[in-house]
Amino acid sequence: MFGFIKNSLDKTVSAIKSVAPQKKVTFTKEELEDILLEADVEYALVELIINELYQSKITREMLRSKLLATLATTYKEPEFTPPFVELIVGVNGAGKTTTISKLAYRYKQEGKRVILGAGDTFRAAAIEQLTLWSKKLDIPIIASKQGHDSSAVAYDTINSAKSKGFDNVIIDTAGRLHTHKNLANELIKINRICNKSHEGSPHRTLLIIDGTQGNTAIAQAKAFNEMIGVDGIIITKLDGTAKGGSLFSIAYALKLPILYIGTGEQPEDLIVFDKFEFVDGLLDALFIDTEEE
Ligand SMILES: Nc1nc2c(ncn2[C@@H]2O[C@H](COP(=O)(O)OP(=O)(O)O)[C@@H](O)[C@H]2O)c(=O)[nH]1
Ligand SMILES: [Mg+2]
Fold first, then answer.
1. Residue 276 neighbours by CB distance under 10 Å
2. What would you report as the CA-atom Rg of the chain, rounded to the nearest whole angstrom?
C-alpha cells in the first residue's frame, strides 16, 4: 500500500513547494511557520509547534517528532459480541454514504458478511444512493421511506444482522435536520436504540470529515463529538485538496484517531491512515535525504 498516502498529498506538497521550493537539511522557525500555515495547519497549532522547537535550525527529526505528536491518539477496538455495529456521522456532503460503501467493500474483501442500514431518512436521495451501492457491491441493506424513523432502520438492520449471523453492521445517518437540536436528538436516539437492539452497540461511531474544508471542519467535528461521542475520524476527499496539514489540527483539537482517508469516489479509494507514512510524505518534500548524499 506504500505510496498511496503520499499520492493523496500531491496538492498539499505543491502548496508547500510554493513557499519552500528548495529542499534543505534544516529550516528556520520562520520558514517552517510559513510552510505549516501554507499546508493549512491551524494557526494555534503552528505556534505551539514552533514554540516547542528550541533550536534555531530545525532538522527533519525535530519537526517529525512534533508532527507525529499531534497524531498521538490511537484507536483501541472495544470488546464486543458480533455483529460489530458502526454508526457513521457527519455533515451533509462530507462523504458518509460513499465512505460506508468503501468500508463495506473493505470488510467484504476481508471475508466478512456485512449489512447496511440506510439511516439517513431525511433525504430520499441518500436512501437511493446507499441502495445503489448495496446493489453494486452485492451487500444487503435495510431501507425505509424518506421521513420514516431512522432509529427504526437502525433497529431493524441490527436485528436482521443478529438473526442471520452477520459480522458487520454499518448505519448511515442524517447530516442535517431542520435544526441542530433535532439532529442531536435523532443521533442520541439512534445510539440508544442500537444499544437496545444489541447491547454495547454502536461499537464504533465514526465521524466523516470533508478534507477540502480544512480547519473549518474542526468546530463542526467538535459539535458532533459533544453530541454523541466519536471514536474515530475518516477524512475524505484528500485527493482533491491542498489542505492536508489540517489533519494535524483536526486530530490534535479533537484528540481522536484518524482511521482512514478517502482518496476518490470508488469503493477501493479508502486507505488505512498511517501517520508515519503521512508525516514522512510531507517531510520528503521539504528535507534533503541526507542518506542519499
Ligand atoms: N474525490 C472524492 N470525492 C468523494 C470522496 N468521498 C466522497 N466523495 C464525493 O463527495 C460527494 C458527497 O458524498 P456523500 O457520500 O453523498 O456524502 P454524505 O452527504 O455525507 O453522505 C459525492 O459526490 C461523493 O462522490 C473522496 O474521498 N474523494
Ligand atoms: Mg449520504
1. 11
2. 20
Q: What is the CATH number of domain 4-73+279-288?
A: 1.20.120
pLDDT in tens, 238-274: 998 999 999 999 999 999 999 999 999 999 999 999 9
Residues with CB under 6 A from ligand 1: 90, 92-98, 129, 175, 208, 236-237, 239-240, 262-265, 269
* Residues 159, 163, 167: CA angle, nearest 5 degrees: 85
Ion ligand 2, residue ranges at CB < 5 A: 96-97, 126
Q: How far apart are CA 228 and CA 189, in angstroms?
A: 10
Q: Please check whether the domain covering 84-278 is classified as CATH 3.40.50.300.
A: yes
Mutate to test the pocket of ligand 1, among 88, 265, 268, 273 (most ligand atoms within 8 A of CB): 265
Model confidence pLDDT, tens digit, residues 130-167? 999 999 999 999 999 999 999 999 999 999 999 999 99
